[in-house]
Every structure is written in C-alpha cells, then in structure tokens.
Amino acid sequence: MNTSPYPHLQQRDAQPVTISDLARMKADGEKIACLTAYDASFAALEDRAGVDVVLVGDSLGMVVQGASTTVPVTVNDMVYHSRITAAGLGRAFLMTDLPFLSYATKHDALETSRRLMGEGAAQMVKFEGGEIQANTIEHLSMRGVPVCAHIGLQPQLVHKMGGFKVQGRDGDVAKTMIRDAKLLEDAGADMILLECVPSSLGAEITANAKVPVIGIGAGPDTDGQILVIYDILGLSPGRKPRFVKNFMDGAASLDNAVADYVAAVKDGSYPSPSHAFK
Fold it and tell me: Can you tell me where the transmembrane regions are (predicted)?
C-alpha cells in the first residue's frame, strides 16, 4: 500500500508528458502543475517532484540575470538556458519563451522557434500577445511548431502597459481577452497561459477553451498553475506578487517544497482566495 504523502511523485522511467497528455488532463479535470526552471539541477528537482510542464521563461532576465524587466533577454540566452534545462528532464514537457521582439514578424517567430526547438530542445514555444499574434500562431502551427499563447499581463510590454498590473478588470478589456483567447485557439494555439486577471475571467476563459489554460495569478479555476521556481522557494528578493506562495515555509527540503507545490496544485488547495484577484 502506498502511504506516501506525495502520490504524484514520478519514477525515473515514467513516460514523458506529451501535448496529448495535457489535453487529456484538461478533459479529465486533472490539474496541470507547471514551474519555471533555468538549468539542469532545478529541472531535475522539478521532474522528480512530478511537475508536468517546465517553462524556461524569459523571467530569467529578472531572477537569474538581475534585470528589472524581461526585455533585455536575448535569443541566445533562451537557447542556452533551454538546452541546459532539457538536460535535467526525463518526464516533464519543456516549453520555452520567445524573447522580446524575436517574433515581430511570423518569419522571425519561425526562425526563433527553429533555434529554440532545434538547439534548445524545447517541445513548445510561448509568446505574448492577443489578436495580433493569430497569423503568427497559424504560421507556426502549420509548420509543426507547438505554441502556447500568453495573454493577460504581458511582461514584455511592461513599459507600454505602465507597469505590472492586473488586466481584465474593465469589462471591455475582459471581453477582448475572451475574444482573443478564442481567436488564438482557432489559429492553432495548443495551450493558453493567462497571467494576472480576475478569478472570474480566468474561469470564463478556461470554461470556453478547448485547449488547456494555465494560470499565474488567474484564480483557481484554470486547468493548471505556473509559478517561478525561485518564488516558491522564497529565493526572490523584494516584494512578492499576491499570487505567490512560499512553499519552503515548513518544508524539510527543496524536494519536499516542490512536491508540496505539485500536490497543492493537483488537489486544488493552491491557489487559495488569498492568492487570487477580484
């Protein structure tokens, strides 16, 4: 009888997660646990804890490189960190961000994706933007590139948006976001990442989407959750976003902290109302 407090923990020979598995998890109502990683050691930690999707985020510009935004991150940075993160994974699905202005045209996006998947071993690329990205997503999807569409708060547009602010509280903006999610899915997006929106909007977009919707500060009703690994381990300096929970509090080890995060996502106890926006 398995009495482990972490029934989701994976064996090293577990079958790798695929896009089809993620779609099945949404259909079955199984929450998808995601985390960022930027190197092989953290990737291996997350893999053995049962994380389903690992994101090499351009957040590395802030948490690894010490910049104030993600804007300075280069394609070479992303290729390097994607490659060394892939080296630590056995089961988890690997997704990598396209950095600022590396997908300004659909041809740029294809070339950047080629590098991230070919040199960086990514299995899916993620980039920011609503309706304006529909043609790019269609262009990539038709050529075999799996895409995650990132809407809501878009960190690469921090200077345009005037800061890191909750999106979608205005009714017209919320309607646009609901429309954009449908447009991007129809264009071929395999997943949607929804950042910093009211819980009610996160729930509505998720209910209407056929593809998995992963939330970060988007409430408890999305198909999965993602956080920055340094945030859940209490390593990030400065003020923490409302949606962050430090899973190192009370944990005996790094392994326990990451396993606790996965378990909390899976059983729905994270995020709680205190981590959500109205």
Answer: none
Query: 152-185, pLDDT tens digit by residue?
Result: 999 999 888 777 889 999 999 999 999 999 999 9
Residues in the annotated binding site for 3-methyl-2-oxobutanoate = 58-59, 97, 126
Residue 2: band (very low, low, confident or very high) from pLDDT cuts 50, 70, 90? very low
| 98 contacts 126 by C-beta, under 8 angstroms | yes
Q: Which residues fall in the annotated binding site?
A: 58-59, 97, 126, 128
**Tokens 């003020």 appear where?**
239
Q: Could you tell me if 256 and 45 are in contact, meaning their C-beta atoms sit under 8 angstroms apart? A: no
**Cα–Cα separations (whole angstroms), residue 240 to 72, 217, 227, 246:** 22, 12, 12, 10
Among 41, 150, 169, CA closest to 95: 150
Q: All domains of the chain, ordered by start, with CATH?
A: 19-275 (3.20.20.60)
Say whether pLDDT at 4 is over 80: no
Q: Which residues are catalytic?
A: 195
Distance, in Å, from the CA atom of 181 to the CA atom of 145, rounded to the nearest integer, reads 18
Radius of gyration of the chain (CA): 17
Which helix (H) or strand (E) element contains residue 125?
Answer: strand 124-128
